[in-house]
Amino acid sequence: MVNNQGVCLTCILLQVLILGLEELVNARNIERLKKDLKACYNLIDSFLEPGKCSADLTQCMECAMSPSRAILQDCLEAFASAAESRFGSLLVNGRVLCATEQWWQLAAPEAMLLVWLVQSLPPHASRDLPVYLPHGSPTVPHRFLTFQLVSGLEVLLLCGPNPSLQRVTDELVMQFWQPLLDLLMASARGPLLCLPPGITLAPEVLGLLLINQDQRRSLFTVHPHGSWTEGSEMPLKDRLSALRTFYALAISLYFPSEKPEENTAPLQEEFQAGFSHSPQHCYVVYTTHKAYAIHGKRHQLFLIVKPDIPTFALRSLALCTLQTLTAEDSAL
Question: Fewest Cβ atoms closer than 10 Å to its Cβ: which of 8, 209, 217, 254?
Fold first, then answer.
């Protein structure tokens, strides 16, 4: 279940990101515009492919966890400052491991699309690309610098005209990241952690999506226990499809948008019209699994669990899981 309006709006934002609003609105040469739009094709195609994450649905920045997150955060902030940038993030396999404060202040679709852009491009040691921020700067481009520190781990910066790509590559990357090479390699090669270190969930949980609605960040995983063996309960591709489908169902039918002016693609359907209240919980029972969702003031949680758990126990399991993930706000 995917909202067609949401897909179309996202494709427009992708075009603004690459070409800028002025070029799209006031195109004087249609043939040239068609040629320029080819630069967007790979990005749009990657967005339309079967989802392996949740960012395309939630418009949130997917996060990853690391025991060394504090060390990496300090290094990132120093690196960004030396590069005359306030906007920096460190990605591990396409998820945000840490970011500067100003990066988190970007409109969520902008930050999500910047990460998506990096993932859609062939691997490269460094890049210097002009990008337009669809909300913050749709007509004036920024320099988007990316550097592959080790395989699977990249650092991103939004910069002005200075410094040069060569200076950042030859001087700053070596100065700030070379001393952490062993730590970077361990972070990139280790299992992708989508939960804070030390957190253990109930064994019945097959997958989860946790969204911080204020910060527009999310945690998404279909192997919440850190390891998974082929042949156990439910194949990963089925878990992925089930969790994405349940999210789309719950958002479109049950959970209203409390800030419609910020929601570029309203998903609510007429199903809600007959209710005088706003649902806070919902669940669905399938033959292969059960699903439960909580819509709180700050967080939303979407769970898929084993089918043999009693239906009456779903609420308590979901509440316990939400409390575990947000007890010290260590996750989001």
Answer: 8
